[in-house]
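Q: Hi! New to this. If I give you a protein sequence and the SMILES for magnesium ion, can you show me the bound structure?
A: Yes, paste them in.
Q: Okay, here:
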Amino acid sequence: MLKLPLKFRKPPETSNSIEPPQTLDKTVGKTVDKSVMVRMENVQKVYTNGAAGLNGISFDLLKGDFLFITGHSGSGKSTLLKLLYGAEQATYGDVIVNGINLAGLKGDNLAMLRRRIGIVFQDYKLVSSRTVSENVAFVLRAQGFSRQEIQRRLLPALKMVGLTDKANCFPNELSGGEQQRVSIARAIVNTPPLLLADEPTGNLDPENAWQVIKILKKLNSFGVTILVTTHDEQLVRAANHSVMQLRDGYVYSVKPKDRESAID
Ligand SMILES: Nc1ncnc2c1ncn2[C@@H]1O[C@H](COP(=O)(O)OP(=O)(O)OP(=O)(O)O)[C@@H](O)[C@H]1O
Ligand SMILES: [Mg+2]
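A: Thanks. Here is the predicted structure of the protein with magnesium ion bound:
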């Protein structure tokens, strides 16, 4: 039987206003199941200027899942990811990643959590004065990996994204698709169990976009839990994974992976 790992709440029929916080299960951080990679429990985000980022979202993402998050501009996709890697704090509700409740998580504890999360952005965020190898190795160096360990990890990461022959190029010598693949190599070189990607294909043509999705699918087949935001409906359909659609900061719909037509 198909197990749907996502609980969701439809938006209320009437207003756009933020729901009052509901009673939270304070024990959730302690009791969270080991098979759960991400749990959001009635999560609301109000930015300091009063803008509503998320309006009360609850879902579980199990370890090894691959989830697309879709929705119009401003529906809360980036906000959701930012809450997961601690770039923003939830106003209400619980955000739990790999068993850790992010409420009030700061400093070294937050840094430790981020080491276990790979992040990919639409605009690649590569350092232009460093080569491909240096861009990828930089993360490991910053985390105190030994020279030997960096060498051991570098090649497999570049191989995974098909860029071993570009190791000594600078970002401006690469196509957009190649630059995005470098950013994926950088995100996974320390083998995080969770990869978050915010519009990773937003700047790419269909062929390069599909190549990126194929790499994410491959990582997922190795057990990495993947959460990707996108506007690209066609890509989502072709990739065939679970899809959670946001609207105005709510989960509007959840569609599970179609196992019948899976083409992994
Ligand atoms: N730093 C911020 N300060 C204030 N409001 C913000 C901030 N970031 C996002 N918002 C607001 O929160 C809402 C959700 O924004 P978010 O960036 O999460 O949407 P999105 O779904 O990622 O949109 P897009 O598809 O355009 O990237 C929007 O109304 C936005 O204006
Ligand atoms: Mg966004």
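A: The beta strands are 36-46, 52-62, 66-70, 92-97, 100-101, 117-121, 194-198, 225-229, 242-247, 250-255. Let me know if you'd like me to explain how to read the tokens.
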